[in-house]
Amino acid sequence: MNLFDFWGLMFGGTTKDSYDKKNGEQKLWPSVLLIVLAVSGIFILHLLLSVLWK
């Protein structure tokens, strides 16, 4: 399972379609940014919860 399949499952596959139609970079960057933001957000939330549960 690659990144585009995972993203398509979450968001209806629009990113891979637009990535295939255009030759890429400006369509790819928003998804990379969103993934980075989501991962860092989950990480920060996890840190906050672990601090609160002590």
From TrEMBL:
Transmembrane segments: 28-53
Keywords from the UniProt entry: Membrane, Transmembrane, Transmembrane helix
Organism domain of life: Bacteria
Keyword Transmembrane: yes
Full protein name: DUF2970 domain-containing protein
Organism of origin: Enterococcus durans ATCC 6056
